[in-house]
Amino acid sequence: xxxxxxxxxxxxxxxxxxxxxxxxxxxxxxxxxxxxxxxxxxxxxxxxxxxxxxxxxxxxxxxxxxxxxxxxxxxxxxxxxxxxxxxxxxxxxxxxxxxxxxxxxxxxxxxxxxxxxxxxxxxxxxxxxxxxxxxxxxxxxxxxxxxxxxxxxxxxxxxxxxxxxxxxxxxxxxxxxxxxxxxxxxxxxxxxxxxxxxxxxxxxxxxxxxxxxxxxxxxxxxxxxxxxxxxxxxxxxxxxxxxxxxxxxxxxxxxxxxxxxxxxxxxxxxxxxxxxxxxxxxxxxxxxxxxxxxxxxxxxxxxxxxxxxxxxxxxxxxxxxxxxxxxxxxxxxxxxxxxxxxxxxxxxxxxxxxxxxxxxxxxxxxxxxxxxxxxxxxxxxxxxxxxxxxxxxxxxxx
Length: 398
Prior knowledge:
Helix content is 45%, strand content 15%. By secondary structure, it is an alpha+beta fold. A hairpin with a 2-residue loop joins strand 9 and strand 10.
């Protein structure tokens, strides 16, 4: 049965609908507000009265390192690992920014789980222990928390049918229009079909281990995709592609997303791609190789876009509600993931110097840098206040 037309937005109505949806999502909880308010974090960073942060070696950083941006990611060869899933804000910058952002996200997750401030302090201690372990011996793994094990097992057991059921409500070669998928303007559909005639994209679509390099590809359907939170309002398309033909044909879902200037500050001496999509792809290759090797930068409708096929194994970690024990183990484990992404770019000397810097400025009562604790406390207060103001404005506008 066809869905009522008011469930999706026409191209001319998208902007207002996307802004309304973003405001609604950010009103769901203080943790959701943190996930959707990257700019607020970097506004705080520009304040002169905040705690001073150390300057680490300039490396590619995530730029938006909250817990929702980590999870199982599959490689083109079929391997699965916990890596960073979203690199829209990636830059060559100060690794301390990722630590503070992750610490804020963990603290808000603890508050959303009704855990005490004492637990939050211990979470930051475990977070720093896990991060520092990544620089000492990459082969030494933090104990994998049960909820991470569960996510990895779930990822390993997923197939195209699971992805299709979740994203496009079935395995038919069409994208159903509704709340998530909206109709394209004619010029958008034509531009997408032209984009997928690119030889580089053909190689990307046939690069998975089970596919024939010479297999033809064909765009079966496409739609505007209402997805994400902080990125709502940007151009984003879901493209259903057929790879191969006849009985060997397989379908895949491709995410085409606009890349815009980052809010994260870059190192003044850094040499990064000027094109924002190329910046995202290059950052992903350094921070999250499984994902970066499956991405491509292109231009679409005079805008920079990055392209990646969604794989069934790519998932978000669900840590909305944590016990005290889970909070400690998750903080340690996820910070190790981030630490490895930083450490492999620094080399032995750079990593050792950064590790020494991190061990400075610690009090007797907290085995974590004083600047990290002060920053997280300040940011929690700032975001709680901003979240309540956001909710007040949202309620008055409703």
